[in-house]
Amino acid sequence: MDTTRFLDDLTLVPASLDALADRLDAGLGSRVLLPAARRLLILGMGSSLYAAAPVARRARAQGLAVSVELASTRELPPPAPDLVVIAISATGGSAEVLAAVAPYAGLGRLLVLTNREDSPLALLADAVVPLHAGVEASGVACRTFRHTALVVERVLAGYGYAPPADPAGLARTAAAANQHLLDSRPAWLESAASILGGPDGTWTMAPVERLASAQQAALMMREVPRRPASASETGDWSHVDVYLTKTLDYRALLFAGSAWDHAALDWMAQRGSTFVSVGARLPGAALTIRYPGDDDPLVAALSEVLVGELVAQSWFAAAGEGIPA
Fold first, then answer.
1. Which CATH architecture has domain 173-319?
2. What is the C-alpha separation between 45 and 233, in angstroms, rounded?
3. With bands split at pLDDT 50, 70 and 90, how would you rate the model's confidence at 1?
4. Cα separation of 99 and 59, whole Å?
């Protein structure tokens, strides 16, 4: 890992999404020849699982039998003729994923999504779909996070899922949204980093449909500048995190759009909490960050996390070389 290269990776996000759009239009160059399945099991860790979970939720809403599990669990279904396993690992070397897929290897029903087609995980696969995110010089999964979501959309479409938008078109729109956030950061990044950099840590929240944004943003704050940060779903926030607003200097990054935003806003207003709103102007926000397409939840899911990533990078840069690898 070389977190000094994190900003380099972030600045490549728009071009990477545009390139993926071309790949999606061309069919990804994949060799997906697995048989039909009545059940799908998605396995992954960290960012991979974050990115896949919202897509799987949309597929389940359409009646597709798809489950998402941490690869570290010991309670996985046995191999079966009606089950296809979709294992996701950007590096293709995650120890937990490699262990989880062992019982499914060699049975003709293991599909792997990875950024490295020569990886140990890819070698176990019956079919491989590349993420096409390019080399992430920092070793931090940022481009692969976005690419995973889009590639899972395309893969599940092969099993009966109807994506709510064309993945290639969505990738291009998200590329423009990410570029706008990069270009506009002189106007908001310094303020956002100052507001969110409280003495007790940072909290992120997002609607369940985009929970991955909150999870990924908090992970970036932990992984890059090594600061405390945690994520919650906006509705669930009133049951799990609201308590901290009474005792801590509570600083939140709120990805707007939940039907339950009002409840969180009310509690934070009563207790003097501070928050940055992304995607909509909300009452009481210390700062609001907007970008083209932020009213589309699908575009937001691929774009808004850049705010958290850039804040994390800003903190890292301010800390200099005193952060452990």
1. 3-Layer(aba) Sandwich (3.40)
2. 19
3. confident
4. 26
Q: How far apart are CA 82 and CA 35, in angstroms?
A: 9
90 φ, ψ (degrees, to nearest 5): -55, -45
Q: Tens digit of pLDDT for each residue in 261-301? A: 999 999 999 999 999 999 999 999 999 999 999 999 999 99
Helical packing angle, 305-319 and 167-196, nearest 10°: 40
SS3 256: coil
Tell me how far apart the alpha carbons of residues 210 and 53 are, in angstroms, rounded to a whole number. Answer: 9
Domain limits of the chain? 3-164, 173-319
CA atoms within 13 A on the CB side of 37: 27
In the CATH scheme, what is the homologous superfamily, with its name and number, of domain 3-164?
Answer: Glucose-6-phosphate isomerase like protein; domain 1 (3.40.50.10490)
* Whole-model pTM over 0.85: yes
